[in-house]
Write a structure and sequence with these properties.
Shape: globular
Helix content: 40-55%
Largest sheet: 5 strands, mixed
CATH architecture: Orthogonal Bundle
Order of helices and strands: HHEEHEHHHEHHHHHHHHEEEEHHEE
Strand order of the largest sheet: 1-2-8-5-3
């Protein structure tokens, strides 16, 4: 009997439904940790050790499909993207190109850049929380988590504040084309947004080449001028990947964190009383409710994952959100515990050569936000009887609305 036949959870699994997947993931870890999903054609991997092994073996399991559209694109959408001149971002590249480009890009994510951006993060969060304090009740996702990471990252990247809304919208198009399940009509709409996003990145690199500033693309262009082996198009590709990953994921992290902390009130109160817990709480939040819950690889040869034979050409879907709750690594993994000693061994930022390049920025930004929220709004809570819906896709567990009440007895 095959692994799939042994598990009802595997038979009924919908990889696009991230509304409440954790109970299903737990069953899959127990009954079918590696199985073939006929509906999507993907081999689904749910245990921590197996996911880590796939990430670590980049020669057997290629990243080349990491940014490929999950749903095959119609002819018109393909034409739009091809004529738009789009090339892949960093996360879909393989060595030696990936190694070369990432090494150069990391120089722009060094201590100097973080030190320069921290006061700006503080100011952006201060201004945003001052504004929502006047409301008393609001959508935390849309009014805090949505703008703050974009303003922070775009400041670092040299994006003018007035461009933030359109770049955010283009990022949604990029996410849906790549990881969603769109109709042909919607594919065309979002393919245009994706191409506009790419054109914007290319134009920004050209502008900084003509007139350098104190920002990320200028840093990369200075490295290029000093002899670094990176082209303008590759710099645009790094911008394309980083502009998306560096704000969409932090937006979702902040929103998911509020949901987790509001439903685990003791942890919220502990952090409020002892901000020194913020680093460990951050790691547990990253483990327990990550922004990115799955990622993809392509098997280049016949191989095994765990004890399951996987053929060459197989598309692999690693469910990091499941691996992060694997009891074999995290005892009582379904429990939220900000004192968990090994929380930082989560897989939220990936593993191996494609480990998230901006992880330090994400942790720093989130830590400042958590400190300020617990200090300013100790009585914040989710509004009563709230139904939280999630974006339908395979990778990003995005709550569409997170209504909170600051507990101020009305507008401040």
């Amino acid at each position: 009997m095959s692994v799939i036949q042994q598990s009802r959870a595997a038979e009924n699994y919908d990889i696009f439904d991230l509304s409440a997947p954790h109970a299903t993931w737990k069953l899959l870890r127990e009954e079918a940790p590696v199985f073939h999903d006929p509906a999507s054609g993907y081999w689904v991997v749910t245990r921590h050790a197996d996911i880590k092994a796939v990430f670590d073996d980049y020669q057997t399991f290629s990243a080349e499909i990491a940014q490929a559209p999950m749903t095959p694109l119609c002819t018109e959408a393909k034409r739009i993207i091809k004529e738009g001149g789009f090339t892949s971002g960093l996360s879909a590249r393989m060595p030696p190109d990936h190694t070369r480009i990432r090494k150069i890009a990391q120089t722009a994510f060094g201590p100097r850049r973080f030190k320069s951006i921290e006061p700006k993060i503080e100011a952006i969060i201060d201004r945003t929380l001052n504004d929502v304090a006047k409301l008393g009740q609001f959508d935390f996702f849309r009014q805090v988590a949505y703008p703050v990471p974009a303003l922070v990252l775009f400041t670092m990247m040299g994006i003018p504040d007035e461009d933030v809304p359109k770049v955010k919208e283009w990022a949604v198009s990029r996410a849906l084309v790549t990881w969603g399940n769109l109709s042909e009509e919607d594919q065309v709409i979002h393919a245009k947004g994706m191409v506009d996003y790419w054109a914007y990145c290319c134009a920004l690199v050209a502008a900084r080449k003509a007139e350098p500033q104190d920002d990320f693309p200028s840093d990369l262009l200075r490295a290029q001028a000093d002899g670094a082996d990176i082209t303008d198009e590759e710099i645009a590709g790094v911008m394309y990947s980083t502009l998306f990953a560096g704000h969409e994921t932090t937006t979702t992290l902040m929103a998911n964190a509020v949901i987790a902390l509001m439903t685990n009130r003791d942890a919220w109160d502990e952090i409020r009383e002892n901000p020194a817990l913020i680093p460990s709480a951050t790691e547990e939040i990253l483990r327990y409710c990550p922004s990115i819950v799955s990622w993809r690889r392509l098997a280049k040869v016949d191989t095994k994952i765990g004890d399951v034979d996987v053929p060459a050409g197989a598309n692999i879907l690693m469910i990091m959100g499941s691996g992060n709750r694997d009891d074999a690594v995290f005892p009582d993994g379904e429990r939220f515990d900000i004192h968990r000693a090994n929380a930082r061994t989560h897989l939220t930022f990936g593993y191996g050569i494609h480990f998230c390049i901006g992880f330090q920025l994400a942790k720093m930004e989130f830590g400042i936000m958590l400190r300020e929220l617990t200090k300013r709004f100790p009585d914040m809570m989710l509004t009563n009887e709230q139904q939280i819906d999630y974006l339908r896709n395979i990778s990003f567990r995005v709550p569409l609305k997170v209504e909170v009440d600051l507990g101020l007895g009305g507008a401040a």
